[in-house]
Amino acid sequence: MSTVKTALEYAARGWLVVPLHNPKQGKCSCRKQGCNSPGKHPRTEHGLKDGSKDAARIESWWQRWPDANLGILTGKASGLVVLDVDGEDGKASLQALTAANGPLPKTLRVMTGRAGKDGKRKGCHYYFRAPVGAAIRNSAGILGKGLDVRGEGGYVVAPPSLHPSGLLYEWLAPEQPLADLPAWLHTKLAEANPAPQASQAQGEVIVEGGRNAALASLAGTMRRRGMSAEAIEAALMRENAARCNPPLPDGEVREIARSVARYAPAAPLPVANKSAEPVAILPRREWPAPLSEAALYGLAGDFVRMVLPHTEADPAALIFQFLAAMGSIIGRGPHVLIGSQKHFAILFLLLVGKSSKARKGTSWSEVLRACELVDIRWTKTRIMGGLTSGEGLIHSVRDPITEQVAIKEKGRVVEYQEQTTDAGETDKRLLCMEGEFAQTLQCAARDGSTLSPVIRQCWDSGTLRVMAKSAKASCAEPHVSIIGHITSVELERLLTVSDAANGFANRFLWACSARSKCLAFGGKVDTEVLSAFGDRARAVIEFAKTVQEMAWAPEAQTEWERVYPQLSEGAPGMFGQVTARAEAQALRLALIVALLDKSAELRLEHLRAALELWRYCSDSAGYIFGQALGDPTADAIVAALRARPDGMSRTELSKHFDGNKTKAELDRAIALAQENGLVRVDKRETGGRPVEVLCLVSV
């Protein structure tokens, strides 16, 4: 198989890839004198920062460099940690480790091209799934001589790359599933190579695999602050000698400095907080990596595995809709208590496809067929569409309405009696299924509409009511879930900034959906298999009726305490606004996963499944909203600069808005875009006074 096809396969697994130089004819294709990493360092301009899963980008790389070696990024970027066992020393160290702690699990392995004097290969890479929420750092030798670890900021050379020895990197048992990083190995890495404190960051050692990226990042920071090429080179030389282990060749450091110095330094702009440093932390717009096996836990995972071979639907669309539907069937009762807040089995889900061909409707039909075997009454009476008003939504789950009715005798009112004028709805479960969620957004945007606030009340699961004199219906204990389908084009057109700011959007799980395969004649799950699955699912519902407050297993409690700070940390722009309820969404997912496992206790495997599910939703939100700042003027400036790659002066920008924006408003919006790494300010010579030009940094 060609290298580019292999690279595309890796990308399909969710791994970021990057082209590397090659070591043909005994020399590195970089042609640098004294290159100490022939065939092992990135070939693109920005190195590891260019790592990608985008098929078109990958194909363009290998069209340009058909003989390039292939690298896979490690760490959270690809969800990988790789143990590099190098030579006889590494083999001996690994034997000592496993003798003391237990064997490594069976996992993906690569035989490297390193060979001894006897011609036998002497190197092996062990691939592991990175722990959820944890950052495993690169290290060299801390586990033992000849044992290196590639994690955050690192990468590995992957098959079918060519080694300087003339041998190819090769998979050993490529069909072997990827295993989780062993707990004992995770512990040893954390103890031996702890994350640096903020005050120690300047002294952190930069190990092989992350040196180029670290020095390039440092050079970029200095250039943005206006430092000259000579000053940057001198600073990088000092950092390389003091912190890089082993140091890069001087020529390579000079090349990094020269490359970065080609960019114009950023001019300062007025910002509200002048002491704040500009940061580029908006996520890149990349399609989310597929869900890992951890997410396919229990009944929901079995549903996906049962249906997936017979449908074109996205596995993510299948599992999220199944979880939302089962949570609705379970109803109000089981909950996770955090402080005084009860989180019930209620999910709001929006499936977002690039087009109407994303098979979102197909995925729902598969879920609906399974639900018919679980609770036919719920399926026939408690799934509704047409979210057009808050009053209509409340009416669907209303409590009995009691009113004072006048009693008349001979045409005169003699007294008033309390009577039930509306029996209400006894079943408070409701799944709002909106195949055209664009219509819902349009209704919510109308003047005077109560739809958005009532939807927010439904997620909070408090009393539903609207403050209108004529509105009589209310519901004290609703159990309303929502599933919506929408295309990215419709979403961009209809979702307003206020929807993100007022908490409407962050009550939804955002999940990207695409067609998984082409089945010209469709498929059909075996009737007996489906019937047996229905029996299991009905047993789950019966069990859930016995559960109220969920307990926590000690291991899950410890893990939640560890990941909670990261989940509850805010992020900038629209992405930060639509993911602001990360911890609550993860809890609700864990609750439903546990109930489907017939467990009244949240265990570690339930939490890990929920965290992986949330990871997919967070990555989906990054793809959908990643470059949106949530400020109309700032987003309009970025959009204008996309159409003007040569940049725009402030005068041109003011004309773009037809003079309707004040200087203060433009300055504020430009500062916001600059702080988030999307815009830089260049000085352009005109023969007279230099002109300040705004240019797009990231798209």
**CATH architecture label name of the largest domain:** 3-Layer(aba) Sandwich
Given helix and strand content, the structural type is alpha/beta
Count of individual helical segments: 24
Briefly note the CATH topology name of the largest domain.
Answer: Rossmann fold
Query: How many strand segments?
Result: 26
The global form is globular
List low-confidence stretches.
Answer: 196-203, 266-281
**Number of spatially distinct domains:** 3
Terminus-to-terminus distance: 33 Å
Output the radius of gyration.
29 Å
**Average predicted confidence as pLDDT:** 85
The main sheet comes to: 7 strands, mixed
Q: What key phrases describe this protein's structure?
A:
699 residues; alpha/beta; Rossmann fold; Arc Repressor Mutant, subunit A; 3 domains; seven-stranded mixed beta sheet; five-stranded parallel beta sheet; 24 helices
